[in-house]
Amino acid sequence: MAQYARKIKIPKLPIVIALGFILVAVTSGFLPLFWLSLRAGFGGLDAYLPRVISFTLKQAFLSTVLSLLFALPVALAFARRQFPARNMLLKLFSIPLALPAIVAVLGIIGIYGNNGFLHGLISVYGLPGILLAHVFFNMPMAVRLMLTQLEAVPPESFRLGAQLGFTDSQVFRFIEWPQIASSLSGIASLIFLLCAASFAVVLILGGGPQATTLEVAIYQSLRMDFDPARAALLALAQFSICTLLVLIAGRFAQSIAVFPRALGEIRRYHGKSLAARVADALAIFIGCMLILPPILQVILTGITKIQLDHSLLRAIITSLTIGFASASLGLILGWVLAQYTARSRSAVLRSAIRVASLAALIMPPAVLATGWFITLTNFTDVSRLAAVMVIMLNGLMALPFIWPAIYPALVESMQRHDRLCGSLGLKGWDRLRLVDLPVLRKPIGLAFLMGMIVSLGDLSAITLFGSEHLVTLPALIMRQMGHYRMDAAAGTAVVLSVFCFVLISLAQSWSNSRDHA
Amino acid sequence: MITLEGVTFRYETMLMNFNLEVADGELMAVIGPSGAGKSTLLSLIAGFDEPVSGQIKIAGVDMADCAPDQRPVDMIFQDNNSFAHLDVWTNVALGISPKLKLDAKQSATVDNALAVVGLTSFKNRRPTELSGGERQRIAIARTLVRDKPVLLLDEPFTALGPALRREMLDLLLRIQREKKLTILMVTHQPEDARHAASKIGFVESGQILYVMDNKAFFAPTAPAEIHAYLKG
Amino acid sequence: MSRLFACLLAILSFASLAQAKETLTIYTYESFVSEWGPGTKIKESFEKTCDCTIEWVSLGDGVAALNRIKLEGANTKADIVLGLDTSLAAEAAATGFFGKHGVDLSLAKTPMPWTDEIFMPFDYAHFAVIYDTEKIKVPPRSLDELVNGDASQKIVLEDPRSSTPGLGFLLWMKAVYKDKAADAWKKLQPRILTFTPGWSEAYGLFTKGEVPMVLSYTTSPAYHVVAENTSRYQAAPFNEGHYLQIEVAGLIEKSPRKLLAQKFLSFMMTPAFQDFIPSNNWMLPAGTTATPLASAFSDVIKPAKTFLFSPEDVYKNRRAWIDEWLNTLVK
């Protein structure tokens, strides 16, 4: 890669703008709080903090390991097999990401809780419940990301494997695993950060204050205690730990060693034995059993209770508008950052970009929101900027999901096209229009979709900035619940799931439509 | 000897029908317009595609129920002939044992093959660090260690420059003579065929229209389709 | 030149005349002004009595509204903050941003005489354990019975670190058990299914049938009677007494519309405001209503004894009490 990169001049302006945007967003969020805590003198670190940190790390670590362990065989099975319900299942796998925690938790409780048909299989309250919920949220995402990787295997590799007489396990060892491994540390750190920042799931299913994460402690100090100094301290702890982890994970990230892939159909010559087929069927079955029942529970509970009224319609439009804007912002940022990372030879800069792309997971949204408020309130009426704030925060929150969807494909495309584009003098907008967009429509579609789904399911930004004029679907669900309207809320959750499903279908048909061009 | 009798295959809307005989120790080039079915012909022989009907025999044995690795065939693709994350030596060693458990003698075989193709000094490098020509040498080295009597080449040197291509062809010819290989090589370069092949097959619209001697193929007396293609 | 100046002045004064309609900005919690809350109706009702406009600014909850005031400080555009509760009152007063309301204290119809000169109450309810009559035949008759009762019958509570009812229950426990509160929590622990971040999640678990008891308000059964016509969910009267939540509003001292704000706080105690409270905010009115309450509300249990720490006590001790709770349950 480097050998082509040297000849390509990297335009500096977009990356300066994108990094500057994130840097300003993070510092304007954090510095006001930090300044307050400097003035207040850092509060003492009580015995509570180490306990909170160790629980945060423990549950996040276990959640990550479990999510990946379940995701790997499922992703492999999906990559190996074509079967009638495959597409449908993959679309359903995108729904958990869009479900607000309380909706998913009610779905999980409906299955594993005291009245669920799997009651007693797993104790829902306490660490096992937290892990179950985190696997429910993150395993399907990991499956989709791994599958994207697996679909990028050159078709010749499978032919070569067939010719050399690879067994199924050798196909895994020499073809599938290296392909997944290149993105594994990225997927793992994403899941880890998501679980470390998990808030509602931990509180509801944790069973009590013994299950307290840093995010909960930050929320507490920003709300009930209104102690921004302590919040800044906690945020600093979270920031340091997460950044360290991201950097460590980055060291394990293998540079993606793939050759340009011929645009051929992938045909598999392995896994034909009965045992292999049964194993894959079992993997898919177990994966589905983890993901589908809670979704079905949500749908079945709410399907008859949808209240199609003015507020629902307004929430749909608001959600879609904000989702579209946030996903666009996230995609543009992600594109610029990914392109620069792929070409930059400075390891330090690459690490910095990597951390920047995860900003909204490393710096708790509540801290960012409070800091932005303090910064902006001196200049303007912040409540008028609510929509902008939500879009900014959602855009940043979408970035970590957009990144793994777009980065590997971008690197591959650059390896394939940089020389040609360089020789043709094709650059900037023309290159984007003629080469990158058409070639990368699939990963771009997936990235945009991920961003939109993240925004669709977001409750934190909308809670921090929302108002009676700005109500998204998750906010409407919380509103309805706050007014005893649990049934209406269940109905709205169905609408949210359906929208997510429709969006996924649209994105898929779009990204597939010109595949045979 | 390779024989194809009434081998039919459907690719999207095109119906292909191949009849062919290649004698032992022969190097036959396969030429024809893009999309004529040249690569499919090789895929059928290698076992990556299954014919709808007809029979493929190699050395008199029907290949119908033979998996690709059980056929006495090795195939080199245009690209992606090696695993990018494994070093050169390991990529070649895979040709002997996918378990990568090689005894001293087998290791020596690998080293020897690398020496023949001139990659000894690169044996610890990753294929991504090599040039296109060097990468194809990995595939040729692996062919050597696999020691199959039939070699199929699908435009293996298309990406290389004329001088390098000539060098690679000569390497191939040397190996063919030593090992008495039967080679079927799809190419887009008529001069490669003229330089290396003893016979040339002309494929168009899913059929092998002509199989001719090298001289006759390039002679003014050759059929009109060939003329049209060569002028093309 | 002077004519031009006069013209300009005329235009300017005309413009300001057009804007003469004063706008009263009220910070409140989100559910007060959502489509099912009383906000819109109260706005219409008040705007009839004055030449003014109400602009609601909704924040997540009372705590968020107070935090917003703290963040904005002197720059706030709020004239009134509506929706704090008595646990927050002292903390709010300590910011120094709130001024005296000047409303006749005797207008407040709270379970105990109202004496606060800074905040006026607009509604109240006692905290209560709501139970599902289909699952529990004999509900606990006291907090003590809840604490020492059958551990297989669970209750869902709200987390006092993030939720007002959660804090309310913590204060209730403290009021009843005083220095023995930690022991009582320890005994109660096996009965607690989980602590949720807010009231909605807890009540959601309860109505889903996951748990037969939830901490809510004495007024909760009224919702199910009025909106769902069912008396399945009942409040359990506890013989020690119940902890009270009173929701209050206060005006911003530096507001340029202080008079209008005072007018609103007086208006708050009248039927034109209070009539919308019960069946929109599902709380009991703290002022005069035009008609007697609907039967669903007159059936709301009236505790023999009411607990309420002074706002100052809560302000001083909250952190220590929450830490005590935390350390008790984590061990």
Give an overview of the whole structure.
The complex is a heterotrimer of chains A (517), B (232) and C (331). The radius of gyration of chain A is 23 Å and the shape is globular. Chain A has helices at 2-5, 13-40, 48-80, 86-92, 95-98, 101-112, 127-150, 155-163, 168-196, 200-206, 214-222, 228-252, 274-302, 310-343, 347-357, 359-362, 365-377, 386-424, 428-439, 441-457, 460-465, 473-482, 486-513. Helices cover 76% and strands 0% of the residues of chain A. Chain A contains 23 helices and no strands. By secondary structure, chain A is an all-alpha fold. Chain B is α/β, with parallel strands linked by helices and 232 residues long. Helices cover 35% and strands 25% of the residues of chain B. Chain B contains eight helices and ten strands. Chain B has helices at residues 38-46, 88-93, 104-117, 132-146, 162-179, 190-196, 214-218, 224-231, and strands at 2-11, 14-22, 27-31, 53-58, 61-62, 73-76, 150-154, 182-186, 199-204, 207-213. The model of chain B has no long low-confidence stretch (mean pLDDT 91). Chain C is α/β, with parallel strands linked by helices and 331 residues long. In chain C, 42% of the residues lie in helices and 21% in strands. Chain C has 15 helices and twelve strands. Chain C has helices spanning 2-18, 30-33, 39-47, 62-72, 86-94, 143-148, 164-177, 181-188, 199-207, 220-228, 258-267, 271-274, 277-281, 295-298, 311-330, and strands at residues 22-29, 52-59, 80-85, 98-99, 119-132, 155-158, 192-196, 213-217, 233-236, 242-252, 284-285, 306-307. In chain C, strands 1, 2, 3, 4, 5, 6, 7, 8, 9, 10, 11 and 12 form a twelve-stranded mixed β-sheet that branches. Chain C is globular, with a radius of gyration of 22 Å. Residues 12-18 of chain C have low confidence and may be disordered. Chains in contact: A-B, A-C. At the A-B interface, helix 8 and helix 9 of A face strand 6 of B.
List the helices and strands and how they pair.
The complex is a heterotrimer of chains A (517), B (232) and C (331).
Chain A: H1 2-5, H2 13-40, H3 48-80, H4 86-92, H5 95-98, H6 101-112, H7 127-150, H8 155-163, H9 168-196, H10 200-206, H11 214-222, H12 228-252, H13 274-302, H14 310-343, H15 347-357, H16 359-362, H17 365-377, H18 386-424, H19 428-439, H20 441-457, H21 460-465, H22 473-482, H23 486-513
Helix pairs in contact in A: 2-12, 2-14, 2-17, 3-7, 3-9, 3-13, 6-13, 7-9, 7-10, 9-12, 9-18, 11-12, 13-23, 14-15, 14-18, 14-20, 18-19, 18-20, 20-23, 22-23
Chain B: E1 2-11, E2 14-22, E3 27-31, H1 38-46, E4 53-58, E5 61-62, E6 73-76, H2 88-93, H3 104-117, H4 132-146, E7 150-154, H5 162-179, E8 182-186, H6 190-196, E9 199-204, E10 207-213, H7 214-218, H8 224-231
Parallel strand pairs in B: 3-8, 3-9, 6-7, 7-8
Antiparallel strand pairs in B: 1-2, 1-4, 4-5, 9-10
Chain C: H1 2-18, E1 22-29, H2 30-33, H3 39-47, E2 52-59, H4 62-72, E3 80-85, H5 86-94, E4 98-99, E5 119-132, H6 143-148, E6 155-158, H7 164-177, H8 181-188, E7 192-196, H9 199-207, E8 213-217, H10 220-228, E9 233-236, E10 242-252, H11 258-267, H12 271-274, H13 277-281, E11 284-285, H14 295-298, E12 306-307, H15 311-330
Parallel strand pairs in C: 1-2, 1-3, 6-7, 6-8, 10-12
Antiparallel strand pairs in C: 3-10, 4-10, 5-8, 5-9, 5-10, 5-11
Helix pairs in contact in C: 5-15, 7-8, 7-15, 8-15
